């Protein structure tokens, strides 16, 4: 899983910030390591130099393999809270998305197994009919 960190002009994008964000994202989504190709984190200060209750914004886009990207945004009074909120939202979205994919795969597998057992049954019937015809 590749992690990219971007920040706007009002947030000083340092290596320390990128390392902290990357480590936090990796810890949270390590279980999806094989399912995600990339996670892109955008950090922004909406009010620039003014302070406010929800002036920090974290937008995260996760790209599951072979699927459309999932995107969430969270605003808070600090970058830490904005990142934590966005990670929590994305975690719920990924759980839901991956759960739906697993359910579809399981249903397809069940249908395939039913089809195979039905085909086996038909072959067995044909075999028994041929055996009876030969012995008669």
Defining key terms:
Double Stranded RNA Binding Domain; Sigma 54 modulation protein / S30EA ribosomal protein; 2 helices; 136 residues; four-stranded mixed beta sheet; 24% strand; ribonucleoprotein; alpha+beta; 53% helix
Tell me what you see in this structure:
The chain has one domain: Double Stranded RNA Binding Domain, CATH 3.30.160. Helices cover 53% and strands 24% of the residues. It is rod-shaped and about 95 Å long. The protein has 136 residues and is of the alpha+beta class. The mean pLDDT is 85. The chain has helices at residues 15-29, 79-135; strands at 2-7, 36-45, 56-64, 70-76. The chain has a four-stranded mixed β-sheet with strand order 1-2-3-4. Keywords: Ribonucleoprotein, Ribosomal protein. It holds the Pfam family Ribosomal_S30AE. This is Sigma 54 modulation protein / S30EA ribosomal protein. InterPro entries: RHF-like (IPR036567), RHF/RaiA (IPR003489).
Please give the structural blueprint.
Blueprint: E1 2-7, H1 15-29, E2 36-45, E3 56-64, E4 70-76, H2 79-135
Parallel strand pairs: 1-2
Antiparallel strand pairs: 2-3, 3-4
**CATH architecture name:** 2-Layer Sandwich
Distance between the termini: 66 Å
The percent of residues in helical segments reads 40-55%
Shape: rod-shaped
């Amino acid at each position: 899983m590749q992690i990219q960190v971007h920040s706007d002009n009002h947030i000083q994008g340092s290596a320390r910030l990128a390392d902290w964000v990357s480590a936090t994202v990796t810890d949270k989504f390590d279980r999806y390591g094989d399912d995600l190709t990339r996670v892109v984190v955008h950090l922004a200060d909406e009010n620039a130099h003014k302070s406010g209750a929800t002036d920090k914004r974290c937008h995260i886009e996760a790209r599951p393999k072979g699927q459309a990207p999932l995107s969430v945004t969270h605003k808070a009074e600090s970058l830490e809270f904005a990142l934590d909120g966005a990670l929590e939202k994305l975690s719920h979205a990924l759980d839901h998305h991956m759960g739906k994919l697993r359910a579809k795969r399981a249903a397809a597998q069940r249908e395939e197994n039913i089809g195979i057992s039905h085909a086996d049954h038909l072959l067995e019937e044909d075999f028994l009919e041929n055996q009876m015809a030969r012995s008669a």
